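Long-time lurker, first post.

We've been arguing in lab meeting about whether zinc ion would sit comfortably in this protein at all. Half the group thinks yes, half thinks no, and nobody has a model to point at. So I'm putting the question to the forum: if I give you the sequence and the SMILES, can you give me back a predicted structure of the complex? Inputs are below. Any interpretation is welcome too.
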Amino acid sequence: MAKYSSKPAAHVVENQSPPPLQPQPQPQSLPPLRFAPSFDTRQPGDIILQASDAAAVACYFRLSLLANISTFFAELPPPGPSDLYDGIAILRLHSTSSMGLLLFLSLVRSTTTLEAYAFDDPHAPPAIGIQSILDAAGLARNYAAPLVFRLLVSGLDGLRETEPALEFAIWTIGGSEKHTKEAAERTIKIKYDLTKVDPDIVKAVKAYAPASWMQMQDLHLRGANAMRRWWDWAPEEAPTEVGDTACPTCAPEERDRISKGLVELFAECDSVEAVMAVYGGDLGSDCKSCETARTRAYYPRVQWLCDFATKYDLKGDELGNYVADSWVIWDNGMNDS
Ligand SMILES: [Zn+2]
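Top reply:
Settle the argument with this. Predicted structure of the protein with zinc ion, as tokens:
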């Protein structure tokens, strides 16, 4: 309180007129940078990387290490006079958050150590959050550092379960079709509710790969409606021709049973897994040859259902393709006997 009482009442009056200007010495030194604690020591061969958000964190980092994992840094032209800070090249990274930059550099640095870099639970602060992971992925994309996507995914660890769409996001930002497909199909396998995905993930995927997000939604929509589609055509499509694969002894009774079986065998099925389980089990024919005939007869429809419900990159009229395929199988079967 002494602080306030020591001020004379006249001070208030004094403030009504502008205070006299004191000549300020012009700083000859550079504007100070805010270096991140683990990247604040300058080593030979370092450059400075600076984030572009409000925190604008700066980091010393070895250029040769970045050049090893990124064509952007490998082809970085020599710095001009305006790219220098205290005699060292400084690169201000556009649309890069400080946390994203720190994570990115920590991952790159981990390639020189035995220990993999692992994240903590992002839902428990002050751990690295989902946004930082997405930012680091964006950084890896913008600065052509594909290895960082793999490092990000391997760092996810338990987070794969907590937020399965995150792995999908990393791979689709990275542009890997193969890994994107696998990660997307995994969300179906574990029955992930896509409507519960973290909004930051949706935003990032839409920004970097809008088509992937639509495809992911399409997959989940198909997964949710697959059984309805199955029952739409299963009864009426029970085809008479599939019965022709029955052996001469059992036909025509078996022919009839196969057709009916498509409905009856799968009558209790309310999920793709249930259909697969029935199909993988005893199809109910006493005759070995006709049991095989049933397997062949139901194959196209079961395979279609499975693909429709679980394939990320389903294209065209898959049922049509499988029916056509089954005719090939059927023809071969007939030729063998
Ligand atoms: Zn038979």
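For your lab meeting: The mean pLDDT is 81. The first strand starts at residue 34 and ends at 35. Whichever side wins, do check it experimentally.
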